[in-house]
Amino acid sequence: MARKMLIDGEPAAALEEEVTDFDFDLFVIGAGSGGVRASRFSANFGAKVGICELPYHPISSETIGGVGGTCVIRGCVPKKILVYGASFGGDLEDARNYGWELSEKIDFNWKKLLQKKTDEINRLNGIYKRLLSNAGVKLFEGEGKVVGPHEVEVTQLDGTKLSYSAKHILIATGGRAHLPDIPGKELGITSDEALSLEELPKRVVILGGGYIAVEFASIWQGMGSTVNLVFRKELPLRGFDDEMRAVVARNLEGRGINLHPRTNLTQLIKTEDGIKAVTDHGEELMADVVLFATGRVPNTKRLNLEAVGVELDSNGAIKVNEYSRTNIPSIWAVGDVTDRMNLTPVALMEGTCFAKTVFGAQESKPDYSNIPYAVFSIPPLSVVGLSEEQAIEQANGDVLVFTSTFNPMKNTISGRQEKTVMKLVVDAETDKVLGASMCGPDAPEIMQGIAVALKCGATKAQFDSTVGIHPSSAEEFVTMRSVTRTVAAAKPRTSL
Amino acid sequence: MAVATSLTVTTPKKLSSLSSPTLHSLFFSKALSFSPSSSSFLSLRKTLLLSPSHHTRTRRRSFTLSASANPHNYDFDLFTIGAGSGGVRASRFAANYGASVAICELPFSTISSDVTGGVGGTCVLRGCVPKKLLVYSSKYSHEFEESNGFGWKYESEPKHDWSTLIANKNAELQRLTGIYKNILKNSNVQLIEGRGKIVDPHTVDVDGKLYTARHILVSVGGRPFIPDIPGSEHAIDSDAALDLPSKPEKIAIVGGGYIALEFAGIFNGLKSDVHVFIRQKKVLRGFDEEIRDFVGEQMALRGIEFHTEESPQAIVKSADGSLSLKTNKGTVEGFSHIMFATGRKPNTKNIGLESVGVKIDKKGAIEVNEYSQSSVPSIWAVGDVTDRINLTPVALMEGVALAKTLFLNEPTKPDYSYVPSAVFSQPPIGQVGLTEEQAVEQYGDVDIFTSNFRPLKATLSGLPDRTFMKLIVCAKTNKVLGLHMCGEDSPEITQGFAVAIKAGLTKGDFDATVGIHPTAAEEFVTMRTPTRKIRKTNPSEGRSESEVKAVAGT
């Protein structure tokens, strides 16, 4: 096969001459977003590709996974389905002032939704398998291990082991939820189980302030559960724009979620009445379900990476260079297992870049600038570029902050007391829009187009010159005329 | 006269205490006696419009002159007729720039006429806002259906109470018209209630009182038009449809434009039996052909019956009060309402335009140059009355541009390129830039990227909803020329992309942007392979219409 290898600037010839007769050009461990994308694209470039994945089940473990990976089976997709389901809760309330007379008794059947969700995930799992076979990628079911720089071993369900040689090995095994080490932790669940509970819990305690915690809080609240959200910081969503964090906190509270900021759980106790979650303030919260949304860790433990000398960081993530290559030249890694930016579209980008670099004769580095993303809380939050705090830290000159807080038109009649907040952060010197964020209905859909503009360095003037679409929420982004505040740069100016 | 309340800015207004006839004659005699200066000002303006940078200076001088030593003691620097989107915007901005401004508007009513209107105009009172509120309300029936697929169950079928909706809608409109009045007040714009009529190039008559102004702005908008067929007195227009005393049981909507489709969606959602009669084969003439097909299909799936290539000929009211619509193809009976959404006409009648020589085009729209100036130099016009692009945000843009041109020494032309727009049909449409047909005609070689998919929500709800997206890319420059979408959230999604397309970004820029997962919008940045490439074999030769269509259809 006529392929150009990239070996950190060295000529590709050396490696190609070294070994000639591999079973595969590429063997991928893990068929999630990144792995499937890299496999398919590599195969399209003419590579002979094998991929292995654990057997399918909604709840992951060391030995359970499924083609499609976290996003499809235990993340984005099932989560969004539940968010859709939960959103109807608020929608029904809003409908009344629009003239709709609803029966007193409205029933929400969790089991029905769960079944339909599982059906959909099964369908998608099948689609992903077909995608692989249509691309000519050979799929093995079983647990993959790295045996040598060019050798993988797949332990199948029945215990038999298969061994294959490959010119390149790609690790795309993702990550898994991490449980805090507190007494009674076995009483708690992770997001995997939360997406597949037998019964809808009446009372929930969620530990964590990240996007997963916030999303599940909204899901359960919308379905009628009582939700206590416990997190260590003053506000949820650390790392996001502070102003937007406050907006999210206000909205969660407004929708009826009990927030416990600057709080941690110290232990879980099983009682007659359910699980007693004890906080570090001595408070006791009773729950049917306690969810730990306390971070995720890369799945690197059982891959035998140490044996072949692949370097990991202190979090257990595989260390890679900007081409997703590990310190072992024939071993590469993409997606959450590298803990760069743990998002499906980023894993897709990394997978595509990998395939182009290794098999497409096109050196490609993933570009991590201005990546938009969303938190599917109800209402959702979406951002692209820098937060106000980051902008102030990074900008050379003054930073202009434009904000718009408004009552969305739908609320004028529904009576819902919930403001939409939008924000643009602009470099005063260059007029470039450095960051955009929004919390309110449709924020993720609205942000995508804004992200294209930011990605290409759009200026505030270019935003202003765009005519609005009326009446929409999105039009606020092009009609922010007066600056809300100007913040002096943190960096001292130099004339150098 | 109430003029005295806003005497804070620029021009002297001592005359305001005088009675109108005196004022009028006074102004007139002065205008005549100082005619040389007046004409030099006008000629200055003309040249001014040719070369902005040069004229900013000239103009400032002329203004300083006129402000201090101006012989005309006008009541106002600007008198605006019509307090809709364009008029209010222009007036506020003009006042902010230091001008003394008055605006007149007809008394508030939900139905417009020669004697009723209301501060806020079409958008707020009879257009965008009430329409969208009704869309919100009507969308719930679809959401209830969807919710069944997500595990929600209702003991009894949700029922809609029309009067609750209309009462809440009207309360909101009252609130908004109040807000608009406050906005004017806070900007020091004097609001005069009544019907404005132009008497001469610098004088407006409002119900018998005369006001003089250096500039007159006409922003009286447009009104629905019902063709004159037998029985047309039984038909309603969109004004009435937004404020009916009761919900139509069975309604005929005549027209295939955006208003027709929006109302079809509204009444269908509220469980009326909806029939749409269109003259052509497809709805939404002027839109991208694929979008036209797609939205028609989706709306039909939701239960709207389309009668294509049927022109209305007569409406007959039967003894039981029901209406039948006779068309070139036959008669459909049993309608409780027949609505005409057959276009809108500029409100240019009986406001004195002809008498002062303001040129009006065949459709009755005021002819203006690119600075919104009419054939009479002191008379300007913005918004629907000029029939350029009849959208609220465009009227706002024209209003701002005019205020800058007149009172900020910044001659500003509204920029009509890549104006995005939406149709709030169900499902809605968002679009910006060229249609495929326009792109082929203007650029010849274009690449078309399309995506037609079942959104995640529909896979769960089991409803037949789909989403269609389309990018039109110039093959030579890789620039994105047009973007079209029909499906949930299309209007919200389109806005951000409009910024990108307005900024001249390429397909490569779209591709370089990472998606937001899982959204519908991410499809626009993940369209990898063109659905078709349209190539002109001989681009230098003139293209005939049929040739363009043949290629576009491939």
Structural commentary:
The complex is a heterodimer of chains A (496) and B (554). Chain A is α/β, with parallel strands linked by helices and 496 residues long. Chain A has 14 helices and 24 strands. In chain A, 30% of the residues lie in helices and 24% in strands. In chain A, strands 1, 2, 5, 6, 7, 8 and 18 form a seven-stranded mixed β-sheet that branches. Chain A has a six-stranded antiparallel β-sheet with strand order 19-20-23-22-21-24, with helices on both faces. In chain A, helix 2 (33-44) packs parallel to helix 10 (344-359). The N and C termini of chain A lie far apart (51 Å). Chain B is built from 17 helices and 24 strands. In chain B, strand 22 (467-474) and strand 23 (480-486) form a beta hairpin. The longest helix of chain B has 25 residues, at 162-186. At the A-B interface, helix 4, strand 3, strand 4, helix 5 and helix 10 of A face helix 6, strand 3, strand 4, helix 7 and helix 12 of B.
Rg measurement of chain B, Å: 26 Å
**Cα distance, first to last residue of chain B?**
68 Å
Helix content of chain B: 25-40%
Described by strand count, sense and barrel closure, the largest sheet of chain A is:
7 strands, mixed
Shape, per Cα inertia axes of chain B: globular
- Helix- and strand-based class of chain A? alpha/beta
Q: How far is the N terminus from the C terminus of chain A?
A: 51 Å
Question: Which secondary structure elements does this structure contain, and how are they paired or packed?
Answer:
The complex is a heterodimer of chains A (496) and B (554).
Chain A lengths: L12 H6 L5 E6 L3 H12 L4 E5 L15 H6 L1 H20 L4 E2 L4 E3 L1 H25 L3 E4 L1 E6 L2 E5 L5 E11 L3 E3 L13 H4 L8 E5 L3 H12 L3 E5 L11 H13 L3 E3 L4 E7 L2 E6 L4 E4 L1 E4 L3 E3 L6 H4 L22 E3 L10 H16 L13 E3 L5 E5 L2 H7 L4 E8 L2 H6 L5 E8 L5 E7 L3 H13 L4 H5 L20 E3 L9
Parallel strand pairs in A: 1-2, 1-8, 2-5, 8-18, 10-11, 10-16, 11-12
Antiparallel strand pairs in A: 6-7, 7-8, 9-17, 13-14, 14-15, 19-20, 20-23, 21-22, 21-24, 22-23
Chain B lengths: L19 H14 L1 H14 L3 H18 L6 E6 L3 H12 L4 E5 L15 H6 L1 H22 L2 E3 L4 E2 L1 H25 L2 E5 L2 E5 L2 E4 L2 E10 L3 E3 L13 H4 L8 E5 L3 H12 L3 E5 L11 H13 L3 E3 L4 E6 L5 E5 L2 E6 L1 E4 L3 E3 L6 H4 L22 E3 L10 H16 L13 E3 L5 E5 L2 H8 L2 E8 L2 H6 L5 E8 L5 E7 L3 H13 L4 H6 L19 E3 L10 H8 L2
Parallel strand pairs in B: 1-2, 1-8, 2-5, 8-18, 10-11, 10-16, 11-12
Antiparallel strand pairs in B: 6-7, 7-8, 9-17, 13-14, 14-15, 19-20, 20-23, 21-22, 21-24, 22-23
